[in-house]
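REQUEST FORM: STRUCTURE PREDICTION
Request ID: SP-0412
Submitted by: Lab K.M.
Chain count: 1
Length (residues): 210
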Amino acid sequence: MTRIVKDPEKRRQEIVAAAKALFQTKSYEHTSMNDVMQSLGIAKGTIYHYFKSKEELLVAVTESIVSDSLPAIQRLVTETPGSALDKLHALIASTHLTAEDGIIQEHLRQPANQGMHTRLLATAFREQAPLYAELIRLGCDEGLFHTEYPLECAEFILAAVQFLTDIAIYPWTAEDLGRRVQAFPTLVETQLQAPPGSFAFLPDIFENRR
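STATUS: Completed
RESULT:
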C-alpha cells in the first residue's frame, strides 16, 4: 500500500481544524490529543511532530480563529465611509466573527473553556490593536483626536471592549457592569481628547452584546 505524504502546511491546517471542531463540541478541557488523532486517523508521531502539547494546539486554534477574521475587519474599515470616528464606530460595533466562530464563542464562555476563551481574547487583542491604532492616528490627522500614544490608547480601548465587559471573565453584577459601560464614553474621550459625545454610542454597543 502506497503511503500518502501530505504537504506539511496542509497537514497542520487539518490538525488545527479538527482540534477546533473538537474544542467546540467537547470543550478544550475534555478534548485530548488522542481525540484529535482519532478524528483524523493519524499516528501519535504525526500530531506531536506539529504540536508538542495540547496547549500549543490551543494557541494554533485561537490564532486561526483570529487570523480568519482579520480580512473581514480590514474590509469593514476600508468600506466604511466617513471619518476615523465613523470607522472606529463600525469596528467596535462589529463582532468580527463568522457564524461558526460565533457558536464557538458561546461554547468558550462556559467555565470548562475559560482557558481557550481567555487565549482567544488575548490573541484578538494583540492582532487588532495595530488596526485601532491606525484609525486613531488617522483621527489625529483629521483633528478629531489628540494623542501622542495611539497604540497605547488602542490597547486601553480594546481592553475595555474585549475584557472588562466580558462577564465570563469578570462576573459583574448588572449594576457593576452598567456603571462601567456608562463611564466608557467619557474615559475614551478623555484619553483621546475627543469632542464630548464622540463615543456616546459605546453603551448601546455593549448593551447589544449582552
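NOTES: The chain is about 70% helix and 0% strand.
Reviewed by: T.R.
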